[in-house]
Amino acid sequence: MEPTESREEFDTALRRIRHEIKSRLVAHGLFGTVSYTDIGPIDNGPTGSKIAIVAKGKTAEMSFDRREIEGCRLRVGGPVLAGIVSMIDEVSG
Known about the structure:
By secondary structure, the protein is α+β, with helices and mostly antiparallel strands.
């Protein structure tokens, strides 16, 4: 797989994860920001990403590896969804 194809799958999954987080924030009546930072060397593609949510003056962060993130390119689930739920609970409480 070429690096651009690999990066495209990773970025697609991150966009889907971001959308899932925003949807869940709205369901809790919250407005917040979602950011992510690549982890690892960029030349061969990142080895993962740290996702941060800021809402109501609170911040929640969690890191996921590349395989977990790319597994969400069609539908967010598994450990990433569990992490999102945990982070939303942290900022909404």
